[in-house]
Amino acid sequence: MRIALAGAGAFGEKHLDGLKNIDGVTVTSLVGRRLDATQAIADKYGIGHATTELADTLARDDVDAVILCTPTQMHAAQAIACMEAGKHVQVEIPLADSWADAQAVLAKQQETGLVCMVGHTRRFNPSHQYVHNLITAGDLNIQQMDVQTYFFRRKNINAKGEARSWTDHLLWHHAAHTVDLFAYQAGPIVFAHAMQGPIHPELGIAMDMSIQLKSESGAICTLSLSFNNDGPLGTFFRYIGDTGTYIARYDDLVNGKEEPIDVSKVDVSMNGIELQDREFIGAIRDSREPNSSVAKVFDCYRVLGELEQQLDASTSQ
Questions:
Q1: pLDDT tens across 132-159, in order?
Q2: In the sheet that 2-6 helps form, which strands lie side by side, from edge to edge?
């Protein structure tokens, strides 16, 4: 399996680290914004081709599939371009930053029949897999999810502390993780409501947001998001169920009493990104639809589109 990766930033390197652990996979091309920095990463990982143009990579015959870790605003158009070039594609979360663009990506996948997967990593983290296995076995029903997504990001920088060329977004990027995960664990979402705080004068985005969701099972979810939080960073999920409480912190899991739960045997790795990439490659090899295919996560973007309309209406009043 010959993979190209576009977006040689902080998250792109996480994928490259995960791909190293998967048998029969070679990264043949790397796409980045600046050629010097991209070539340095290519040299570090032994990648033979580096470029600043995705079109150059898509024209190569030694690329079977592409992983997109590019800025959010590029995801939909680039995913479509990959499929038009006959390449399978995994696009990092979010699929798009509008409902219309999400619909266009799904239409192209259905037209081509290629694997198009979205990087909804929470479906693959061993912590969330453990809870999902309890749910599918009938041993747990979610009553409520309480989720905090907190960063300290008052300037436009990435996870490595470097300046970003694009602006991140609480709704279309960070909320997408939880909106999809809640539906995955508790059933289709039938109600959604959002409020946002003041708009940052320079970044032009809301730095704080609150979202409430309800699934058809009756379960509810409360999601708090902030770029203003000067404290523990990341996303913390509390599952409150009818038979237990679980707190997930990325790949780690504890119960409601903060007692650790061993999730090391849940899957072949403890690295959610690696497991995500294994699913992408496995789906291509097996000619099957992957978990977190564009079709399976599609409803998340319907909900985000509805929430955006609510927020736009509230700010215009």
A1: 999 999 999 999 999 999 988 776 665 6
A2: 50-51, 26-31, 2-6, 65-68, 88-92, 116-119
Q: How many CA atoms lie within 13 A of 273 on its CB side?
A: 17
Per-residue pLDDT of 224-236, as tens digits, reads 999 999 988 899 9
The rounded distance, in Å, linking the Cα atoms of 53 and 58 is 9
CA dist 232 and 264 (Å) reads 24
Query: pTM of the predicted model, to two decimals?
Result: 0.94
Cα gap 232→86, rounded to integer Å = 43
Report which DSSP code applies to 290.
Answer: P
Which residues touch 169 (CB under 8 Å, ≥6 apart)? 72, 97, 205
Cβ(295)–Cβ(109) under 8 Å? yes
CB atoms within 10 A of CB 251: 22
Amino acid at 182: F
Rounded Cα gap, residues 293 and 119, in angstroms: 9
In this predicted model, what pLDDT tens digit does every residue of 94-107 receive, in sequence order?
Answer: 999 999 999 999 99
